[in-house]
Specification:
- By secondary structure, this protein is mainly alpha-helical.
- Among the domains are: about 20-55, no CATH class; about 95-150.
- It is built from 3 helices and 3 strands.
- A 3-stranded antiparallel β-sheet has the order 2-1-3, with no helix packed on it.
- The two termini are about 50 Å apart.
Length: about 150
């Protein structure tokens, strides 16, 4: 049992500690680049060393890239930056809307609590029988408002 548990823990660690993976950059017949873990079928291709557990923050052009590949990387980097900016703006807009909604809910909650207290006070001091139906409807509406807005 212990050996099995140790193997479950040790095997992923050994896989993570592997020094590097062999990746090949191959060119297809239509001129596009393809990354694969096997040898290239044609003579156009090169071996690229990648170490495991590496993340890239920004795309860096390599010295052995063609001008077209370099332009593609720059274009991709610009699109990624624009996408980050758009997501950031959307996040700010959503955060602002949530903040506004919370303020509105707090105001509605305070309104409901205040009016419920007034109606309770009115009921305890007496009211006309003709007002009973209207007070019951107001109380029901205020309880709903409180349930929705007071959390």
């Amino acid at each position: 049992m212990c050996l099995k548990n140790c193997a479950v823990i040790i095997l992923p660690l050994l896989a993570a500690l592997q020094s590097a993976a062999d990746i090949y950059r191959c060119q297809t017949e239509d001129g596009k680049w393809l990354f694969t873990d096997g040898q290239c079928n044609n003579e156009v291709g090169q071996k690229v060393k990648l170490s495991p557990l590496v993340t890239f923050k920004k795309l860096q052009p390599s010295a052995n890239l063609s001008e077209a590949e370099h332009r593609i990387l720059i274009d991709l980097d610009q699109r990624m930056a624009e996408s980050r900016d758009i997501r950031s703006r959307q996040h700010k807009q959503i955060s602002n809307q949530i903040r506004k909604n919370k303020k509105i809910m707090q105001k509605n909650c305070a309104f409901a609590e205040r009016h419920l207290a007034r109606i309770r006070d009115k009921r305890s001091h007496g009211y006309k029988l003709s007002e009973a139906n209207a007070l019951d409807h107001q109380i029901r509406d205020l309880y709903r408002m409180r349930k929705v807005n007071c959390r």
